[in-house]
Task: structure prediction
Amino acid sequence: MTETPRSAAWPALWVVLMVMLAIPIPLRGIPMPERGVPILYLVVAGTVLILIHIARTSLPLALLLGYTLFWVLTSGFPVRGVQILVLMVLGALLYIEASRLTASWVRRVAWAFIVGSILQVVLGLINMLHVFPSPTTPALALRWIGVDPMPVFKFFDAGPWLSLMTTEFLGRPMGWLTHPNFWGSYVALAVPVVYVVRSEDLFGRRGACPAMIACGLLSAARTAGIEGLKSGWSVNILAVDEGVVDGEVERWAARLTEGGGPTGELVRLGGSHLGRLQP
Result:
């Protein structure tokens, strides 16, 4: 059985690339153009192909990355600029993969995010007791079985407790996202986002634990909607009654993440809430 070869995304790119590899044009920021410029051509060509791939999912995102690539090329290839470009391109590839997740995997990802958030809340409560564990703190348990945990700390180059830069941190809930960049990255992975909960959980019909999670997400969405209003965040809650089909849930979730719509709102699918006190 003969397989039909797939066509290239942009065949003309290969013609241009083969010609340009033999013409190392001197560029500012590259001290050895006869070696550095051909490598640069390969990097730029590969980036262009990635942008073409990204554009099929999100054209605005591809245009933003294209502008970043142009800025890096015309600014003398600053190290920071190249690092940001690589980070943005890799993040865009993750965005493409995320857009192809099935509904069941979206739910698993949402629960994973909730688990991570709960971990930060627990760490924050511990911090209020003036205790600041680090990610390597669990290695202290090795002492219970007579094993020295120091090799673990040396391997990760981190001790069992966080080092505070100032006493002003004492008693403050910090968790492990102590740097603004870390928190910004954490938020960026969840915005725009729609949290899907069961309507009955908002009324506590399935027990205290599901009710706490659902109401906590509702409070978090409303708070994020207020905090990110000027930045254009879109964070909403979709409460679904039993019997609502997955396709309807996906359609409403997609609508709420299109941008320019509501934020910090509770949207209900079904009528179980009618005539009841609303949370």
In short: The mean pLDDT is 75. Residues 90 and 115 are 24 Å apart (CA to CA).
